[in-house]
Predict the structure of Cytochrome P450 family protein.
Amino acid sequence: MPKAILDFPPGPSSKFSLRLLRQLSKDPIKTLSDFAQSYGEITHFKVGNGHVYLINNPDYIEKILIYNHKNFKKGKRLQTAKRLLGEGLVTSEGEKHDSQRKIIHPLFLPKRIASYGQIVVDKTSLMCKEWEDGSIMDIHKEMMNVTLRIICKSIMNYEIDSEEASKFSSALEVSKKYFKRLQHPIGHILDHFEILPEVSKSRESIKTLDSIVYQLIEDRKKNISTDNGVGSSRQVDQEDDLLSRLIQAQLLSTIRSKVEQNNEFDKHQTNAISDLNPMTDQQIRDNIITMLIAGHETTSNAVTWTYYLISQHPEVEQKMFEEIDSLLLKNSDGKKKIYGNPSIKDLPKFKYIEKIFRESMRIYPPVWSIGRLVEEDYLIDKYTIPKGSSILMSQYVMHHDSRYYDNPSEFNPDRWTDEFKRHLPRFSYFPFGGGLRGCIGESFAWQEGILLIATVSSYWKLELIPDQKIRMDPGITLNPKNGIKMKSSIRST
């Protein structure tokens, strides 16, 4: 390994580590953005005894996430998230991750994703019909609820009722706030004090989430059965969704165990199950929780921030309405416009909505940073990053870099021309993460976001309630702190 020319890249002095710790805890996005402005493409700083490197160069990020990915494992934030997510697809490593991804991946192939389009429109349309003209609501809460219903129906063929959805969302909010505190460098100490209200509330919230998911697993298992004969063929229902796939994988691994124990091998069957690791109820739970949370929170945040930006730019809103009218307006009866709902066939036609959504996720990326732990000394530029160090790559910082975006703070959907996209470095824009372990549902999220916006805005105009303090709340995803209140008005001529 070549020696580093300098001990460390530039960065804030370790003499002020306590001050830096407070800054990172209070406002990590501003702190990291300031580092990038002050110190350039690689910043070094210390948090406690740990060395952290902020990488602010798309080529370096590409090498870390793709070409040299085997030298890194998930960062400390996702290690902490295992308390909630377990060893699901997002947090697991190595063979366990690869085995789970192989089971889940077919649900996110292009044809399957397209089949979910009607579900997005149906659930969103139902939500829109429940709103009232002139009502004031937290648009983030509305988007969280509808995207939860969408992901449940799309990938699990499960209709979550209003009571369950409310319990799930409330428990999730408690868990997210607690795990954000655990991500503090000394936050793990908090977890040892069960007497503290936030600790007990967090544990109760996880029990609530678990009870919903385990009941779902139990109910589905009743519809999937196997013959009692060792090594015999399976008798299963025809459902091909996430939950059924995970349970069937569990059944196959059980059959494999019985076959191996009894030395009764069926060539066709053993070939089919030879590459499956044993699947427990806990693993099924971990993957369901992961997909429910990751599969609806990122999109709901992205759409919420999109409507916040649209509400402040009437010229963008008007152009969006014109596109929707040109595609969906069927006729006009007096003052009332009558729209048809969008379909999956309309998706490529919503070119301006796609630009709006893309620009919104540039300004407010759903995943605002990615962390990695260095497994072996790693040479980057003229510096050697030692084994055991942490690497940070921030989508928020990269998306606001003036080297790649003129007036980066400006909301400008029209910047996204085909030519602009062609010349943009790959990892100067990566709102859902990236690399060989990138978000498995990214294509679904794009489709869902565009169809959701098109459907909502064919029914309603959303107006931001004035005098709110809108702030970012950067946890694992980029939430709006305390939600965003908006007033709904029926669209009419």
